[in-house]
Amino acid sequence: MYPDNPPHVPIQRAVEVHQPTPLPPAVTVSAPVVPVHPGTVPAVASVVLPDGRVVTGYAINPAQPESVVAKPPVSRAAVNVALGSVGFLAVCGGLLLLTTFITALTALITQLITLAAVIFGGWVAVQVFSEGSRQGGTTVNIRKATFKRNHFHG
User: Which of 67, 90, 91, 118 has a CA that sits 20 to 30 A from residue 38's CA?
Assistant: First the structure.
């Protein structure tokens, strides 16, 4: 069904190998060291570890987080009143939209009924006042009419 494809030989391509180029070491310019004396000399602490080693160093006081002013708690009643108000406003808005939709739908139906009445009234007026309807209609004088085999003949 499909033609046989001849076997493909992989294409051989030349490969370039890129070696990274080393960068020369950066030259550092040392600034003169100016000794600064701390306001107070920190205390040196030595700690003996359980295995007998002694670690000596400066004691570091942990950073104290800034005190946060406690916010006064909001009462449950205030939260419930707020949520109830939001819910009440949402329901009122929905009812307003529903009322608006029903009013618009009523106006549309009224206009459609009025349009149908105007069109039907116009059709009736054309039928009544047109001259062509009297020519095509049948006027029968009952006194001269005869019936033959249940058919009316004028």
Answer: 67
Separation between Cα atoms, residue 140 and residue 151, nearest integer Å? 14
How far is CA 76 from each of CA 6, 71, 73, 79, rounded to the nearest angstrom?
82, 15, 9, 5
| Residue-wise pLDDT tens digits, 74-122 | 888 888 999 999 999 999 999 999 999 999 999 999 999 999 999 999 9
Q: What letter does residue 125 receive in the DSSP assignment? A: H
Q: Are 107 and 100 in contact (CB under 8 A)?
A: no
For residue 147, what are its two tokens?
Answer: 């019936």
* Token pair listed for 8: 């493909």
Q: For the CA atoms of 86, 90, 96, 102, what is the dihedral angle to 10 degrees?
A: -160
What element of type H or E holds 29?
none
